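Input.
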Amino acid sequence: MFSRVRLSFLLFVFFAIPVLSIAEPLTFQRAVELALTHSPTLAIATDDQVKAHSAYLEMRNGYLPTLYLGSGLAQTWGFPLSLEGSAPSIFNVNYQSYLLNFAARDYMRSAKTEWKATSKNREDLRRDVILDVASTYLELQKVTNQLASMTTQRTEAAKLVTITNQRLQAGLATQLEFTRARLVAARLSMKMAELNGTADSLRDKLSQATGLPARSIEVVADSMPKLPEPAPEDDLSKESVNNSLALSVAQDRATAAAFRARGAHRAFLPEVDVVGTYGLFSRYNNYDQYFNHFQRNNAAVGVNIKFPFLNYVAKAQAAELDADALKAKKQVEIVRNQVSSATQKLQNQVAQLAAAQQVAELEYELAEGQAHAIEVRTETAGGTTPGTAAGPQGVSLTASPGDYVNAELQAQDKYSTYLDTSFEYDKARLQLLKQTGRLESWALPGK
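Output.
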């Protein structure tokens, strides 16, 4: 008996836990936080940032001492020839660092500016991740509401098919009317299948962004912060230009290109390096036979001065970098114009969609009101066949249940249109928030 109870309990745990884990409410802020943690795009951007920082350190460290410890052990016959530019030695130390190098200084500034650009580019990609998650979450919320509405429509369509069939049997409706009713129900089933497929795709997208199982994702309707209403008199184009990370990245890269070009031209200026070397020599290398005085410990400290005089390769490279710098400068103008134009276009689109949303809302309210009026007229007729009584101006005061079902279907269709229009309006406002740099403070308030 005890074994059976334990087996039943284990079976309950095995089957119940997956069922309980299927529906896990996912708030909007939690979805954004998880997406920022799991985003492979941000991980790649972080790697690029680390790489750019290392490139800057590589240039900067040229001014720090470089010390080599080694040995030039060798057997010599005759005059002690050099090995890789150094005399054969038991032990040697070599030191080198920049003292005066105008080209290296500009290359270092270029690398530092590129590092700053990669940091800003990562922040811009961070905004893209938030925008993508917010749009997906908003669309899934819309589709969920449409599916709920579609369930009601399908119930009403089934009623319409039943009512039309009854009227057909009673000789009060034609076969064509019955086919129309069935077609309405079939179209709703097709639309519902499309919405289910869309919902699954959106859940998969959120799953890839957050790392959660797709089947466990369930949006929370009131978890998304209210989107601000943009004021028509605000100069959002100027604000977007001032807050655009894409423009700031383009400016930094233009500055870096200018530093590289100037560094290439400064490669023709004198360069001064601090150098030092020490070597421990031995007699078996024949130093005592070819030099008047043999000394085991030998050192030299000084500066290495170079005056570039003729270098056609460097000259061509400088001209190439000049062209790159000019191109990067013009690219800044292009990005600035694109940001300004895109913001202005979005601002106009938001105004148009706000009006479209109001129209869709009024059409839905009107359809609901008409459905309610037909419901009253249906009750007046006693829920049977349409009456013959007429109201003012020949308007019928009674209606059939089929008329009411049709009116309800039209109202639900208007509601679905209203949801689509609201989604497009909210999506445009999200894009406008990103353009003006307000997206993250809206999505993650207090962080």
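The CA atoms of residues 133 and 352 lie 24 Å apart.
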